[in-house]
Amino acid sequence: AQTVTQSQPEMSVQEAETVTLSCTYDTSESDYYLFWYKQPPSRQMILVIRQEAYKQQNATENRFSVNFQKAAKSFSLKISDSQLGDAAMYFCVKEGGSEKLVFGKGTKLTVNP
Amino acid sequence: EAEVAQSPRYKITEKSQAVAFWCDPISGHATLYWYRQILGQGPELLVQFQDESVVDDSQLPKDRFSAERLKGVDSTLKIQPAELGDSAMYLCASSSGQATLNTEAFFGQGTRLTVV
After folding, report:
1. DSSP secondary structure of B51-65
2. B-chain residues within 8 Å CB-CB of A44?
3. Cβ separation of B42 and A33 shorter than 8 Å?
4. Strands B31-37 and B88-95
5. CATH numeric code, A3-112
6. Cβ distance A96 to A4 under 8 Å?
7. Whole-Å CA distances, B71 to A69, B50, B51
8. Which residue has the higher pLDDT, B2 or A3?
9. Given 1.10.300.10, 3.90.79.10, 3.40.50.300, 2.60.40.10, which CATH number is that of B5-98+107-115?
10. pLDDT in tens, A58-109
């Protein structure tokens, strides 16, 4: 079975600082998608950023960027200039065959003013 | 902006009763997912549909859970009988179903079930 591991149950960052959330995954596929989803308290899950495995270039979306290391099966999320609104649960997600989505257990991010 | 609609938002039911949740995906989305999310954990897939067909229900407790998507549009997830351990958030999501295109999944706000 495919697994996604987030080794940091909780992280905290000062407002305006940078934080990196870690994720590793297990797969035998060569082509797949990776995502980071954000789930704010009592609100619905939304996509933060996505990465296609066949693309070597790391994805970037404004203050959010990833460090994708395909050989190491690592996919970390970097949040720059952290804002109070970034506080949420962050899930690393792998999409494999048949669009099946496998979630990690999540990292709870706290942003301190 | 198109959204995945779920109802009810909250449900309290007694142990051994039946309960049902409804999901209306984004129009045109062929793939529909039902996830169960226990507080503080990541979502776990219960069932995945491609149009009206079940693609994956390997983690669905079939003795008490059932799911259908009869016309390939909206979907219903049923639990009968409910047990205390079923208390969780039930999330519905949909995606375009086109493997060569954007496979982003869009999530509904979920149904929070409490079994007492």
Report:
1. TTEEEE-TTS-TTTE
2. 107-110
3. no
4. antiparallel
5. 2.60.40.10
6. no
7. 41, 11, 8
8. A3
9. 2.60.40.10
10. 999 999 999 999 999 999 999 999 999 999 999 999 987 677 889 999 999 9
pLDDT, position A100 = 81
Domain boundaries, chain B: 5-98+107-115
Question: Which residues of chain B neighbour A43 with C-beta distances below 8 Å?
Answer: 109
Residues B7-40: tens digit of each pLDDT? 999 999 999 999 999 999 999 999 999 999 998 8
Quickly count helices (H) and strands (E) in chain B: 0, 11
Q: How far is residue B82's CA from residue B12's CA, in Å, rounded to a whole number?
A: 11
Give whole-number Cα distances, B38 to A11, A73, A106, B42, B84, in Å. Answer: 20, 27, 12, 7, 12
B44 touches chain A (CB under 8 A): yes
Write down the pLDDT at residue B60: 95
Amino acid of residue A58: N
